[in-house]
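User: I'm preparing a small set of examples for a lab meeting where we compare how different chains pack in three dimensions. I only have the primary sequence for this one, and I'd like the structure in token form so I can line it up with the others. Please keep the answer compact; I'll paste it straight into my notes.
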Amino acid sequence: MRLVSFERDGKSGFGAVSGDGVVDLTPRFAGRASGLRGLLSAGLLDEAREAASGPATQALDGLHLLPVIPDPDKIICVGLNYRDHVAETGRTVTEKPALFARYAGSQVGHGQPLVRPRVSEQFDYEGELAVVIGTGGRHIAPEEALRHVGGYACYNEGSVRDWQRHTSQFLAGKTFAGTGGFGPWLVTADEIPDPSKLILETRLNGQVVQHTTTDLMITPVPQLIAYISTILPLLPGDVIVSGTPGGVGMKREPPLFMRPGDVAEVEISGIGTLRNPVIAEE
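Assistant: Understood. Below is the structure token output for the 282-residue chain.
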């Protein structure tokens, strides 16, 4: 099942993708779940799947899509989780995963513009697999971790490189408003039983700039869930952005950054393609 968050007539909603349309689930779950985070928290995926078999109520094309989870309690990003990216940055592999936070306001949905900040021309792409928690927990064992996953999506973890390098802390360059693409939808975990069997590709204006398989992660998804859930409880709707492979723009010769007028795409097998145009901050 593919689930989307959207905005229509100034009101937010959520639904299930059916062919070229969307079954609006908002009225069905009124009073029980106001969005996908609430749907996951209430354990209503099975009922949503049943409701999704009905006729589409609106066209997908032209619908204003929001980030898959517009209001997560937390977004935890993983740095340096592919060896080719570690190598191109000149860093060394750490024993434990490198983590940092993003904020909900830094994200946009599929089809919505990524915003290059006015203070920088070093706006870089980072294609990644996003893991959305379905069942919360603390001290989750790796062998149990995938049972806590609600689904998966594509993520473009846009990075403002010069601000990222202001200090040793990544946050400044990683959470500018409108710099992270999250979509196009949530593919529920039953359709992706093994997240290590996926192909990830990032394209800029149609040119392939990153290509990897997710089995090359240094710390795989189950171990990430176990590690993060030891620090603090994971909640339904929480997002883990699992790291980018090599090929980022800042390490190319010459550097290749996203500019206004560009189109960035992140495609992951079994999920789909997240596509975002790039604009300049007004």
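A couple of notes for your slides: Residues 75-280 form a domain with the Fumarylacetoacetate hydrolase; domain 2 fold (CATH 3.90.850.10). The mean pLDDT is 97.

User: Perfect, thanks.
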